[in-house]
Amino acid sequence: MFADALATAREIDGAGSRAAALAAVAGAQAAAGHPDAAQRTTAEALDAAASIANTRDRADALHAAAVALASAGSFAAALATAAAIADETLSFWALADIAGIQAQAGMFDDALATAGRIAAPGLRWSAHREIARAQAGAGVFDDALATAGAIADGHYRSVVLRSVAAAQAAAGQAEEARRTFAAARRLADAIAAADARWKARLDLAVAEAAAGLAGQARRSFADLTAATLASSQGSSRSMALRDIAAAQAAAGLFPEGGGTIGLIDDGRHRVEALARLAGAQAVAGLAGDADRAFAQALAAAGALADDPRRWGALRAVCAAQAGAGRITDALTTADRISDGSNRGDARRAVALALATAGHFGNALATADDIAAGAHRSSALRDIATVQAKAGLYAEALATTRAIDEDKDRWAAMQAIAGAQAAAHDFADALATARAIVADRPRWAALRTIAGAQAAAAMATRRLG
After folding, report:
1. Sequence-ordered list of residues with C-beta below 8 angstroms from that of 269, at least 6 positions apart, any chain
2. Spatial separation of the C-alpha atoms in residues 143 and 418, rounded to whole Å
3. Rounded to whole angstroms, how far apart are CA atoms 278 and 5?
4. Taking CA 434 as the corner, what is the angle to CA 430 and CA 436, rounded to the nearest 5 degrees?
5. Of 80, 152, 154, 162, whose CA–CA distance to 114 is shortest?
6. I need a surface site. Which of 34, 113, 188, 242 has the fewest CB within 10 A?
């Protein structure tokens, strides 16, 4: 089957995509115990990359090849490929990606050594971030904290510590998680840029809630809300409060989210927050609370005098209703939008919700009600993609034939080819990919198929 994978890779006209596909095959060959074949295929991949005239495109091709090799476990070849990138920054970027892949494979010492080769501080910190996250995921928390401590930038280190704390909480180490979250909070509070500091504090509160530290999350959200009220005004304050309320709702802190919504002055932002709250309550099974929040959102949206703002607010409510499975209500809300583009976007959300629930006939009917154009094409692309994931390849391909916009049709067909390849339906996957007229999505589909064929061959050889 390696021969099939190589044939598919060589079918790709674009040198960059062909190089990445060949590198994936080479990595699989090496993992299957065929070093000579892997070396030949790697050389072919590098030759393809070297044939690219544009310096940046050539570097991107080598970067993709290095990542493909590393993903298949061929780390020596990946490092050599990264070193062949002439642009130093892009070479460091490839090394950062390789370090992250090594860390995910549990090769922490090797990952740290790779990170140590990166002279650019930001990219080195990025590598350390991924290593620390992998270490925390593996339960080696002391090592993860030590890796985080090597990051000089406080903002970066705060993000990493947040991930470590979440892993500690998941492992049942609640007190350790609280200490690590506290360290992350001190660093977040010290971030100089106001917008970055606000976002870091919001992300921290969300992480605390997700980690099961509800009391601490409530305090963090309350502190952030107070800081927002004290330091901002007008639309900026309303948008910030909307985002806080939405995060509280997503975390299941419904009373707190409702309280934050009451502080929002701007009508559209208040509607958007109410819609998010109602959707979260519906998903949590709090039907009565969701009914009331949706009703408040619709009333507030109807009170907006400005047409574009009212359309946008109703679109947000429709999306939340659809996401909560309230399809009839969502369609009714969509019909209240007099602007065709906004109504089409709202109906697209309903169509996707129906497809996700497996109601493909109703999803297609909803998409058909959208006026021809970008929103209808996007809705049909969404449906075809969901059908493909469900293994309904013939139905998905039939859906693509109704798509007017080329880019959406090619994207849907690329997704179908990928799903067929993942199911080892390689002949059908190739037929789907070859039917894509546009070069880049066809090359991407063929690259995916070549990788799946190589992985299947590697598994077969290992079993043999």
Report:
1. 235, 238, 239, 241, 242
2. 38
3. 49
4. 125
5. 80
6. 113
For the chain, the residue count is 464
**Chain center to CA of 189:** 27
pLDDT tens, per residue, the chain with 464 residues: 799 999 999 999 999 999 999 999 998 998 888 889 988 999 999 999 999 999 999 999 999 999 988 988 889 999 999 999 999 999 999 999 999 999 999 999 999 999 999 999 999 999 999 999 999 999 999 999 999 999 999 999 999 999 999 999 999 999 999 999 999 999 999 999 999 999 999 999 999 999 999 999 999 999 999 999 998 788 899 999 999 999 999 999 999 999 999 999 999 999 999 999 999 999 999 999 999 999 999 999 999 998 899 999 999 999 999 999 999 999 999 999 999 889 999 999 999 999 999 999 999 999 999 987 889 999 999 999 999 999 999 999 999 999 999 999 999 999 999 999 999 999 999 999 999 999 999 999 999 999 999 999 988 765 44
Q: Which residue has the tokens 């047409």?
A: 307
CA-nearest of 150, 136, 138, 140 to 181 is 136
R_g of the chain computed on alpha carbons: 25
Q: Can you read off the two tokens belonging to residue 55? A: 């310096």
Q: For the whole model, what pTM was predicted?
A: 0.87
How many angstroms separate the CA atoms of 365 and 417, rounded?
25
DSSP of 55-72: HHHHHHHHHHHHHHHHHT
Closest C-alpha to 412, from 375, 442, 385 = 385
Q: Which residue has the tokens 């002391």?
A: 142
Count of Cβ atoms closer than 10 Å to residue 391 Cβ: 13
DSSP string, 271-320: HHHHHHHHHHHHHTT-HHHHHHHHHHHHHHHHT--SHHHHHHHHHHHHHH
- What's the token pair of residue 416? 């179908």
Helix (H, G, I), strand (E, B) or coil at 87: coil
Exposed, middle or buried, 259 (CB in 10 Å: 0-12/13-18/19+)? Answer: middle
| Other beta carbons within 10 Å of 60 | 21
Q: Which residue has the tokens 């939340």?
A: 320
Output the CA angle 14-15-19, nearest 5 degrees: 120
Spatial distance between the Cα atoms of 297 and 313, rounded to a whole number of angstroms = 8
Burial of 162 (0-12, 13-18, 19+ CB in 10 A): buried
User: Which amino acid is residue 328, in one-letter code?
Assistant: T
Which two three-digit tokens encode residue 40?
Answer: 């030949």
